[in-house]
User: Fold this.
Amino acid sequence: MSRQLQYLVVVLCVLLAVFFSTSLAEDQKTPNAENIDKQVQKFLDSHRWSWRDANVPEVDGKALYDIILQHGYKNALEIGTSTGHSTVWIAWALSKTGGKLITIEIDKYKRDQALAHFKEAGVAEYIDSRLADAHELVSKLEGPFDFVFCDADKDWYKNYLEAVEPKLSVDGCFAAHNVFEVSNIGSGGGRGREGYRGGFGRGFGGGGGYWVGDFLEYVRSFSNLETKVLDLQGSNGLCVSYKKAEK
Ligand SMILES: C[S@@+](CC[C@H](N)C(=O)[O-])C[C@H]1O[C@@H](n2cnc3c(N)ncnc32)[C@H](O)[C@@H]1O
Assistant:
């Protein structure tokens, strides 16, 4: 073999080695987006009618997913995991933005079910699940967060917002579930399931953590937050507040 040919063979081998090692590293680094989509979709399809633990309806899960993708959020916090329906939607979106989620649940039985769901949906690696009382943990978390979903005890929403707002980055979003405009409660002509709407509005107003009370009024009093309740067919009342500036 001539020297030139030997030289060419060596160069070719080096180029091939570089090519294969880079694509192997890429494969290990980037999750296969198509596979995740398929696995999550299969999970959501098979569980569509089996969410029974005060989980968000699909329309609200999809709304959370869209918000995260639209804004490219990466550092998420969820307060109130239950068995993990909203968590799967949030984590699915974060799998695309390269983000991560901390989710908090106080009930061990529900949290264990949620962990199994995360595995089945193929999104476990995006979720840091904490078994804890959010009343204590939320104020201890460092942040910053660019997306917060509040869906635990309703009568504590104001406290959660107060604890989290300083850790929410500018342009970040604080989303709160089961929040209804007072004018819609029990109106009979609105969207969604009216009984449910009333249930989380006034019907359970005697306490027990089901009623958000004057949370809407409170969140709207933050001059640095731009707040609206999303107008979604079948929603259980999703309020989103975007942080426009530091307080
Ligand atoms: C409405 S459910 C959450 C539903 C969930 N986001 C979903 O879509 O699947 C509220 C959950 O908050 C939990 N929770 C209530 N108070 C809590 C607290 N202080 N700390 C942590 N979790 C709490 C409840 O155990 C319950 O599972």
In short: The radius of gyration is 22 Å. Residues 54-56, 80-86, 104-107, 110, 133-135, 151-153 surround S-adenosylmethionine (CB under 6 Å).
